[in-house]
Specification:
single chain, 84 residues, mainly alpha, 3 helices, elongated, Terminase small subunit
Length: 84
Amino acid sequence: MTDPSDHLTIEQAAENGTRRDLLVSLRRRLAAALDDDRTQPRDLSPITLRLRELAEEIAGIDAEADDPIAASDFPDEPFDATAL
């Protein structure tokens, strides 16, 4: 499934997009770097790690959007130590 926001540049996503748009743009850039034969072998591990982290963040955002009762729907209440 392709979302039109999946084609924003990193700059466009940073300036005008949502957090998800920015993460998707960064994910696409890192994936391109992994596919690029000019990427130094020493850079493959950190790029791969960051790509995995971005994928998890995006999945979390998507799961929260799909959850009708997301945690963000409930306002924070002041902490009451006496309730313990």
